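Exercise 7.
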Amino acid sequence: MKKAVEAINEQFETLARSKNFSKVIYKAFYFACDAHKDQKRKLANEPYIIHPFRVMQKLLEMNPSDEVLVAALLHDVVEDTGKSIDEIESQFGSRVAKRILGLTKTEREPLIKTLEEGAREFPDIILIRIADRLDNLADGEKLPIRVREKYSAQYQPLIDLVEKFKISSPLLEEFKRLQSNI
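Solution. The predicted structure, written as tokens, is:
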């Protein structure tokens, strides 16, 4: 696992140099690495940090803001680790923290409702969620049927939000194609 984490760090560093990433993106990547350090992706048995890294990579072709890339890297930190939204806000600012809140499941609200509320201020979080789903769906047939059904149930509400907020992106076609294979 240590070698896999080192490989991801190398990939990030190479990408960061080629894209001339700002310091805040470096900071977010290493913050996420620390937060997820003891976690593994269940099906792939790989370090969890690979998932937020791939989500961020999927967004790069759209030339997103640093805040969007930071939110992509941190999108699971509050939900899946001991880190709080207050920590995110103090380290990365309120605009990133608000995006993370819109991407985070709560006990009170279904994810699609928090996503819609967050998208009113930051519609780009819908693309972060789609990039997240694309990475999760990449495991396709390896996913248990209940997980595939859960993702399928989230498909139409995500597409509805895309239409509501008039979002376009090459990610949408990939999302529709992968979804049709589930």
